[in-house]
Amino acid sequence: MSIIKDFKNFAMRGNVLDMAVGVIIGAAFGKIISSLVSDILMPILSLAMGKADLSNHFIVLSSQHVKTLAEAKQAGIPVIAYGTFIDTVTYFIIQTFAIFLIVRFAMKLKKTEPEAEPKRLCPYCKTEIADDATRCPHCTSQL
User: Fold this and answer.
1) Residues paired with residue 35 on neighbouring β-strands, in sequence order
2) Model pLDDT, residue 114
3) Residues 79 and 143 in one domain
């Protein structure tokens, strides 16, 4: 019974729930970035390079001839899939930049929140006291 109770306490702690929400949002965000790269940016990059599909560019490392990367992989022919590598690097750069922008925006929001004014403390017991107090309610010292 103790294991179940310990597990419940662990699972219900705030940081575990926050982490779970972060993982779920991160997975969804990854799909959005993946679509942005593969459906919008890579076609533009491929067009700029004068090629229709960058992800299908590869160098065959054997004497056999294949027309597509899928055909080479199916036949077990060794290839350098530089187009796929460029896609992966582009995904990484865009995801990293997007995360940077989100963190930067969050930090700006955090900075714009007004800082709480420091509370008045009793010079003797360091308990928080009202600004207009003449005697500490905790240690009863004259202020």
Assistant:
1) none
2) 63
3) no
Helix spans in 12-81 (H): 14-35, 42-48, 69-75
Which residues, other chains included, contact 85 with Cβ-Cβ below 8 Å and sequence gap of 6+? none
CB 141 within 8 Å of CB 124: yes
Please give the residue range of the domain that contains residue 140.
Answer: 117-143
Please give the helix or strand (H or E) that residue 128 lies within, else none: strand 128-129
Whether residue 31 is found in the same domain as residue 85: yes
User: What is the C-alpha to C-alpha distance for residues 29 and 98, in angstroms, rounded to an integer?
Assistant: 10
Please give the Cα distance from 53 to 73 (Å, whole number). Answer: 17
Q: Which residue has the tokens 């008045």?
A: 120
- State the pTM of this model: 0.51
CATH code of the domain containing 43 = 1.10.1200.120
Residue of higher predicted confidence among 139 and 99: 139
Percentage of residues in the chain with pLDDT exceeding 90?
A: 10
Q: Is the pLDDT of residue 60 over 70?
A: yes
Say if residue 77 is exposed, middle or buried (CB neighbours under 10 Å; 0-12, 13-18, 19+). Answer: middle
Tell me the pLDDT band of 78, cut-offs 50, 70 and 90.
very high
- C-alpha–C-alpha distance, residues 42 and 112, integer Å: 37
